Amino acid sequence: MLLLDAFDRLSDLLEKGFSCYRRMRGSDPNGFNYDMLENSLDVTRRAYMDCLEDHFDRPLLERIERQCQKKGQQVFSADFLNDLMEAYMEDRFAKPRYFFDMDGVLFKFDDTLTALEPLYEEGYFRNLLPHRLAVHCLQELLSEVPDRIYILSHYIDSPFAECEKREVLQELFPSLNPHNVILVPYGENKTDHVPLRVKENDFLIDDYDQNLVCWRDAGGYAIKFVNDMNDRHGSWKGSRVEYDDPELISSLNHIFEYAGTSEDLAMTLEPYMKQKLEVLRSHADIGL
Fold it and tell me: Which InterPro entries has this protein been placed in (predicted)?
């Protein structure tokens, strides 16, 4: 169902629901039949959630509902609908964020290892050789959109891994915001550590298929960084860039531009949705 269809259907549902509530006002000698109201409200709410759940994150909807209820607002109040609209617009048309893995992307993974012990030695992660083109690419992006560049990398339970990763990042990328460096304990899902959850305009550049699949399943855009050892079977079905591409920054920007939400679409949808909001507010603001 298209987003516009969802809002049309929502408008119809609310109009029918609140028209029913208006008629019910005279069905009780005391002015209201509360049992019927509760039942109708529940039916309308379920239909409302069914209508929107394909386009909005259900936990986000429920969080907005809880916030409105704490304020003493009705679930269908104009304030609730306004919060919903703002949350959707912020989520759908948020500025893109770019998340880069370290091992195998910014730095060459040592494919000569035959045992895990060296990974736990002091200096291992500090001395990994950089992928020159990837580092240059990140430096260029940092000069353009520094607040939207993130590092998202796993680290093992070594006493040196996390601190060495942070140190080498600071040396190579002094303009990188330390708060944008997200190091995740090995074995945990990277998507669980993303600020404000993974959004449609969030890009992950990673060399490991499982990380990419989890990212895509969470709603983000996944780009495989193909190095000299991670694509022997060609199993990844999605966007990719090559570690030795001399035009790596151009290749990435092409993907970002092609995959990103169109500003024209945002400009078209926003006034439409605001107009729909005014329709919904007229129904939501009746006193229940």
Answer: HAD-like_sf (IPR036412), HAD_sf (IPR023214)
Structure tokens at 62: 């429920």
Architecture in CATH for domain 97-259: 3-Layer(aba) Sandwich (3.40)
* Domains in the chain: boundaries: 3-93+263-284, 97-259
Q: Give the distance, in angstroms, between the CA of residue 46 and the centroid of all CA atoms in the same chain.
A: 25
| Predicted confidence (pLDDT) at residue 97 exceeds the cutoff of 70 | yes
**For residue 201, what are its two tokens?**
């305009």
Summarised one tens digit per residue, pLDDT across range 236-279 is 888 999 999 999 999 999 999 888 554 554 555 566 556 655 65
Q: What does the alpha-carbon distance between residue 2 and residue 8 come to, in Å, rounded to a whole number?
A: 10
Indicate the pTM of the whole model: 0.65
**Which of 179, 117, 123 is CA-nearest to residue 146?**
179
Residue 287 has pLDDT above 60, yes or no: no
